[in-house]
Amino acid sequence: xxxxxxxxxxxxxxxxxxxxxxxxxxxxxxxxxxxxxxxxxxxxxxxxxxxxxxxxxxxxxxxxxxxxxxxxxxxxxxxxxxxxxxxxxxxxxxxxxxxxxxxxxxxxxxxxxxxxxxxxxxxxxxxxxxxxxxxxxxxxxxxxxxxxxxxxxxxxxxxxxxxxxxxxxxxxxxxxxxxxxxxxxxxxxxxxxxxxxxxxxxxxxxxxxxxxxxxxxxxxxxxxxxxxxxxxxxxxxxxxxxxxxxxxxxxx
Length: 252
Fold this sequence. Notes:
Shape: globular
Structural class: alpha/beta
Number of helices: 12
Number of domains: 1
Number of strands: 8
Largest sheet: 8 strands, parallel, barrel
Strand order of the largest sheet: 1-2-3-4-5-6-7-8
CATH architecture: Alpha-Beta Barrel
CATH class: Alpha Beta
Order of helices and strands: EHEHEHEHHEHHHEHHEHEH
Radius of gyration: 17 Å
Strand content: 15-25%
């Protein structure tokens, strides 16, 4: 059985002080959650402080990005051993903002995934289509291509350690969302693709999330879907009460 996975991607928000206040409130408001995995992904500057605060709690730590090298002349980047030193368990890779704003392609993302796995980090791989691609009926072909390229030459045991987030670009931060059934269908396609390229057993272990304007008012519907194992949350994760309600989604 796959354990539900609820992660907050804070993006470029929250100073260290603001991060600590948010996490402290989140620890209290979700302390009774036992059957779901809760993850926060702060900015790099807040990782150390948050790591210390959540030590011994039910909340786990993720980073928002990393580079595919252990060290070197890569100004402004951060390496997997640096994240491990801060007790990060997860790292978001392939987010649409990294792809579209910073020009990261599938080849680079594949390298990052392999490096993260080599260092014992669990990648949260983001995939998703643009509005233009959706309107052209290209969603499944586009997402399939991303998954195949991003997971290129990964072993079944490596794929098992991953989390995948389907985040349609047109729904990120826009207030628009896919329908619960639509998201479920695309995520089911991703799971079938993993089964075809690896094995049915591996596909049944990988947690696949939905992301894209997930909020307290719609999370219950998404989590009621058979294939959706959780959510990667943006803006609604910046307030403790909002994210706590998402973590505490009601099963319907």
